[in-house]
Amino acid sequence: MTQTTDHRPLTTPVFRRILLKLSGEALMGSQSYGIDTKVAESVAKEIKTAVDLGIEVAIVVGGGNIFRGVSESAGNMDRAAADYIGMLATVMNAVVLQDALEHQNVYTRVMSAIDIPQLAEPFIRRRAIRHLEKKRVVIFAAGTGNPYFTTDSAASLRALEIGAEAILKATKVDGIYSADPMTDKSATKFDKITFQEVLEKQLKVMDASAISLCKDNNLPIMVFNMKEDGNIVKAVSGDTSIGTLVTN
């Protein structure tokens, strides 16, 4: 990997506004199901560190720790019905994360693509941008509000709508590999890769529609391990050594 000659401190952010994509599994911890509040607290502390640097943070959270519309948990359910249940799972995760952030004294708003006024504001693009300008963390829940679209697609869509400069995708592994590193010891890690290569190699980073949307709009994606303390700040500071950077 080419060494940079830039001597900028790592605590200097290179992005002004980012969208953090959190999987539901990130909130599950070592449990087999549900939400580990200690993990939510840890994630909230990481996000607070980024907010304290002046970075505007939006979040899209998945619902896979509670329900996955295309997995065995959906059984023989109608796909649309299963996807709506998955959207409700993301709302639950968003409220949990909001509570964890507010315990860290971070002002937070949940905006839902499904109308649930008792829990969340409706998603309105200009209002979301205004919240970010006021340094509030915005959590986008319920995906796009439509079945057949993943939370990866929602992350790409919302990132473009709010003018985010990058998507930070927090995962269980430290980047993108040629194969699943959990099952294939010969898998090799990419430091940098193009959107086109991701699509051609069919790498399981985000779904193809999400990757294509980022590719067409030149929106970079940083894939990194959420379990390592300080990685969010490193990612927003342009430290590509912590994961894999996907660009054109």
Characteristics:
248 residues, alpha/beta, Carbamate kinase, nine-stranded mixed β-sheet, two-stranded antiparallel sheet, 19% strand, globular
Note down, in words, how this protein is organized.
The protein is an alpha/beta fold. Helices cover 34% and strands 19% of the residues. Strand 1, helix 1 and strand 2 form a beta-alpha-beta unit. Helix 1 crosses helix 2, helix 4 runs parallel beside helix 6 and helix 5 runs antiparallel to helix 6. The two termini are 17 Å apart.
CATH architecture: 3-Layer(aba) Sandwich
**Strand numbers in spatial order across the main sheet:** 4-3-5-2-1-6-10-11-9
Name the helix and strand elements from N-terminus to C-terminus, one letter apiece. EHEHEEHEHEEEEHHEHE
Inertia-based shape: globular
Which helices and strands, and how do they pair?
Elements: E1 17-22, H1 37-52, E2 56-61, H2 79-103, E3 108-112, E4 121-122, H3 125-133, E5 137-141, H4 151-162, E6 166-171, E7 176-177, E8 189-190, E9 192-194, H5 195-201, H6 208-216, E10 221-225, H7 231-236, E11 243-247
Parallel strand pairs: 1-2, 1-6, 2-5, 3-4, 3-5, 6-10, 9-11
Antiparallel strand pairs: 7-8, 10-11
